[in-house]
Write a structure and sequence with these properties.
With 180 residues, the chain is mainly alpha-helical. It has helices spanning 2-7, 39-45, 49-54, 56-68, 72-85, 90-105, 117-126, 136-155, 158-163, and strands spanning 11-14, 21-24. It is 54% helix and 4% strand.
């Protein structure tokens, strides 16, 4: 137990059903940066990848999981594309597009995302005159990859089960394994 305490800090998460916070010993507070999603919100991440990705706290938890799987570049690329879409200045769009390309698309990048040749060619053509939509096809492909590949493993991870209080030792007490 002492080893777990070193790596994990307690986090009070407001229970959607009650106003009183619940304390969880095995929740990693570092990647939530003080955010306190409700238990209802956390459980919604298990029902919908879209809800997970629309939640700031959900993305942080998922990013932490992807880091543990050595595939964090996928969500970093996706987030960089989302940031690019918000940009209004053509000069800044061009610079950000170049950086995204160098960081995630270039075969020389240590954080290269896995794209098929068709999408890679589309991105290369789009880089001639970058826009906020230069990486749309690549972003969709990486989103789909995360949804189909990483998300199911995330749902089965101890970290998500602990957050969602799906464990036998959770405060929710929703399941009883042992016969009495």
């Amino acid at each position: 137990m002492n080893k777990i305490v070193v790596y994990f800090k307690g986090l009070a998460i407001k229970n959607a059903d009650e106003n009183a916070p619940t304390k969880r010993d095995l929740v990693n507070a570092e990647f939530l940066d003080g955010e306190q999603p409700t238990l209802e919100e956390i459980r919604s991440w298990g029902k919908s990848f879209d809800k997970l990705m629309k939640s700031s706290a959900g993305r942080k938890v998922f990013q932490n999981f992807l880091r543990s799987e050595f595939s964090e570049e996928n969500i970093l690329f996706w987030l960089a594309c989302e940031d690019l879409k918000k940009e209004g200045s053509a000069e800044v769009v061009e610079e950000k597009a170049r950086l995204i390309y160098e960081d995630y698309i270039s075969i020389l990048s240590p954080r290269e995302v896995s794209l098929d040749s068709r999408v890679r060619e589309i991105v290369n053509r789009n880089m001639i005159e970058p826009t906020t939509h230069t990486f749309d096809e690549a972003q969709i492909q990486i989103y789909t990859l995360m949804h189909r590949d990483s998300y199911p493993r995330f749902l089965n991870s101890q970290k998500f089960k602990t957050l969602a209080q799906l464990q036998d030792n959770s405060n929710a007490g929703s399941k009883a394994d042992s016969p009495t």
